[in-house]
Design goal:
The chain has about 270 residues and is mainly alpha-helical. It contains eleven helices and three strands. Helix content is about 70%, strand content about 5%.
Length: about 270
């Protein structure tokens, strides 16, 4: 088991015991805040649509989980090196906020706790805490940036129309709604936007590169990741617009998971570059 663990990337290795009390408490609070952030949407999804709806939850997508795993692994390594520290006031504030039944408050608790741990920690632990704070900032940004998100979905619909109208001149565009001549159409919503995929991917790449050491270059892999994911999502939107059959396949369980796995592969290749 130890040999197999060493063969994996560092951010995927099996955690080992030996964390101190301060570090263990900080890790527990960060993880509790992340879990609290997921509990509300998780309960609603299970009640309304059953287990299949879990695939569409914003915080549980493949790229979100990659960012979470990378952050937790960086925190674990930092704790074992003695670099993970958290002030008591931050822990008390985080615990108090988690008593309030609100998803956005849980996101705020995660941001505050992650920021405090990052400020007082060093090395990999600092970047792991930044990753956890980023996971809280993503839903906060989505809630506070609705106008910007609407503008982005309109831009993506326009780009999809510009690319696809060369193959189907009868394609029409009205706001963020694309419609084929046969009546089939889609509305580019937040869940279809690159804003759904790009923030956790960038966050995961940042943690995976910087937690390994400040000397690893970041700009080129970051640019490659952004460009490839933007292109892949535009191709996905073109597929969903093309026909009801393509929409059913691309928006179903198989197509959604394949797209997620492809994004993970791109992220891993960018991190290893």
């Amino acid at each position: 088991m130890a040999t197999a663990s060493r063969a994996l990337p560092r951010w995927l290795r099996i955690p080992e015991p030996g964390l101190g009390r301060e570090a263990g408490l900080a890790l527990a609070l960060l993880l509790a805040a992340w879990l609290s952030l997921q509990l509300g949407p998780l309960a609603l999804a299970l009640r309304e649509s059953g287990p299949a709806a879990l695939l569409a939850l914003n915080g549980l997508g493949p790229l979100d989980l990659m960012a979470l795993l990378a952050s937790l692994e960086a925190l674990r390594r930092g704790a074992q090196a003695g670099d993970l520290h958290a002030p008591s006031w931050a822990g008390a504030l985080c615990a108090g906020l988690l008593l309030l039944p609100s998803t956005l408050v849980a996101a705020l608790a995660l941001v505050l706790m992650g920021t405090a741990v990052a400020w007082y920690s060093r090395g990999a632990a600092r970047w792991g805490a930044i990753g956890m704070a980023g996971l809280g900032a993503i839903p906060l940004g989505g809630a506070l940036g609705q106008e910007a998100l609407s503008a982005l979905t309109h831009l993506e619909a326009w780009a999809t129309h510009a690319l696809l109208s060369g193959l189907e001149p009868g394609l029409t565009l009205a706001g963020a709604v694309l419609r084929m001549p046969d009546g089939h159409g889609i509305a580019v919503l937040a869940g279809c936007s690159i804003a759904h995929f790009l923030p956790p991917a960038v966050l995961a790449l940042l943690v995976m590169r910087r937690a390994e050491g400040a000397g690893r270059p970041l700009l080129r892999p970051l640019l490659a990741l952004v460009v490839i994911l933007v292109v892949l999502n535009l191709l996905r939107l073109m597929l969903l617009t093309w026909s009801p059959l393509a929409y059913g396949w691309g928006h179903g369980v198989l197509g959604t998971n394949l797209f997620g796995l492809l994004c993970v592969a791109v992220l891993q290749a960018s991190a290893d570059a």
